[in-house]
Amino acid sequence: MYDMKHLDHLRDFARHAPEAWAAYLAFDAAAMKPGALPAKTKELIALGVAHTTQCPYCIAIHVDRARKAGASDAEIAEAVMVAAALRAGAAVTHGTHCF
User: Fold this and answer.
1) Same domain, yes or no, for 42 and 55?
2) pLDDT score at 83
3) pLDDT per residue over 43-94, tens digit each?
4) pLDDT of residue 6
5) Distance (Å, rounded) from C-alpha 63 to C-alpha 43?
6) Pick from 68, 60, 59, 61: which is nearest to 40 by CA?
7) Are residue 62 and residue 16 in the same domain, yes or no?
8) Which residue range(s) make up the domain with 16?
9) pLDDT at 86
10) What's the predicted TM-score (pTM) here?
11) What is the residue-wise DSSP string for 80-91?
């Protein structure tokens, strides 16, 4: 089901919803631009979020970008484990609604 070739269809958004697509691209570029947080940190955050949303495309893209930004295997592993801890924590805290 998931094939990186599907991302070729992203250009369809530019054709069918050009204003919204341009706004999305501008927002994404602004959010990922190094600022108070360096690019590597932003990519590690993106990688963690990608694991919580379980998007294989985002995982592949952001692990590649994190590595290109200088992230080590240990940093990538910790980012994934932080994401896993937060996801597990959310399940546990929502469990309090059972009582």
Assistant:
1) yes
2) 97
3) 999 999 999 999 999 999 999 999 999 999 999 999 999 999 999 999 999 9
4) 93
5) 8
6) 68
7) no
8) 1-33
9) 95
10) 0.89
11) HHHHHHHHHHHH
Closest of 98, 41, 91, 33 to residue 66, by C-alpha: 41
Which amino acid is located at 87 in the chain? R
Please indicate, yes or no, whether residues 22 and 67 belong to a single structural domain of this protein: no
CA dist., res. 24 & res. 18, Å (int): 10
CB 4 within 8 A of CB 60: yes
Is the confidence at residue 1, as pLDDT, over 90?
Answer: no
d(CA 71, CA 38): 11
Element (H, E) at 55: none
- Count of domains forming the chain: 2
Q: How far is CA 50 from CA 12, 14, 15, 58, 68, in A?
A: 23, 23, 26, 6, 17
Q: List the CATH number of the domain containing 95.
A: 1.20.1290.10
Q: Are residues 59 and 79 in the same domain?
A: yes
